[in-house]
Specification:
- The chain is mainly alpha-helical.
- The protein has a domain of about 100 residues: Leucine-rich Repeat Variant (Alpha Horseshoe), CATH 1.25.10.
Length: about 290
């Protein structure tokens, strides 16, 4: 069984930080002496194999050496944990990958801390579909929602279901994160969820939903997007209008000319004034080409 001393001895093989040039002023005070030039790959692999030689307990011991405050003093543990996550993405390393994922997931309890956020970011590198369900539970955490969402998007398979299930109970920034993730995934099964998000009280949530619907080429939503663009102001109006143009392009490429024509015609006829002249001109040009 791995002991803290075993793992500490392995991590001591990670080089010291490079001494910073004293002539170059620091923009802020920091405890570290300089940047890290990692070990040569052969040396790093020796450390990795030593840690995995202790099994899952070896990975857990590395995690335990990561401190709650990222003040630079635990750089060896943070560096090697990321190396472990990356190393297990290699072909034939499924067993070691399971060790890393399981060890990290076992540490994710409570409301979420800065250390846990760092751990979840490592899952973005190495987690697979089997971890989707447990990551989905983290979407309710104020601190862990964003890193969990990034990890789920990286996984892809099974992620959309987790986001759809989490959205009804999500509040504040978490709602924006979840809708943005659904938009990025481009999952057609999420169309209904994205349409519902167009009625959200948060303008950023509505914009993310509009972007997702546009990229999915959802012809049934063109009227909804146009109304949202017409009712928005300033930057939000410009971005909503851009979503309408993207949707029109998608529909046109799919051979759905009637819906595309309605969008272009509406934008041509409603975007008056100098500030929106480029929208009017783009819509008129598209109509002429059709």
């Amino acid at each position: 069984m791995a002991t803290s001393d075993d793992v500490k001895a392995l991590l001591e093989k990670v080089p010291d930080l490079d001494k910073r040039d004293a002539k170059i002023p620091l923009l802020r005070t920091r405890p570290s002496d300089g940047k890290l030039t990692g070990p040569a790959w052969g040396d790093a692999e020796e450390i990795v194999k030593g840690i995995f030689g202790h099994g899952r307990q070896g990975v857990a011991a590395v995690i335990d050496l990561v401190t709650e405050v990222d003040d630079g003093k635990d750089y060896r543990a943070r560096y090697m944990l990321h190396v472990l996550a990356t190393y297990t993405c290699r072909k034939g390393k499924d067993e070691q990958q399971g060790m890393v994922v399981d060890a990290i997931l076992s540490k994710l309890t409570g409301e979420g801390t800065e250390k846990q956020a760092f751990l979840v970011h490592q899952l973005q590198v190495c987690a697979g579909k089997d971890a989707a369900g447990r990551l989905g539970k983290l979407l309710a955490s104020k601190r862990l929602c964003e890193p969990a969402a990034l990890a789920l998007v990286a996984i892809g398979g099974g992620a959309a279901e987790q986001f759809r299930a989490a959205l009804p109970r999500a509040r504040g920034p978490a709602r924006r994160t979840i809708v943005q993730a659904l938009a990025v995934l481009g999952d057609e099964a999420s169309l209904r969820t994205l349409r519902g998000a167009m009625e959200d009280g948060d303008a950023d949530v509505r914009l993310s939903a509009a972007w997702g619907l546009a990229n999915l080429g959802d012809g049934a939503s063109y009227d909804m997007l146009l109304r949202a663009a017409d009712g928005a102001k300033d930057w939000q109006r410009a971005q909503m209008t851009k979503a309408c143009l993207i949707l029109a392009e998608k529909l046109l490429a799919a051979g759905r000319k009637p819906e595309a024509r309605k969008i272009y015609t509406h934008l041509r006829d409603t975007r008056g004034g100098q500030a929106e002249s480029y929208i009017r001109q783009a819509a008129a040009k598209a109509l002429k080409a059709m």
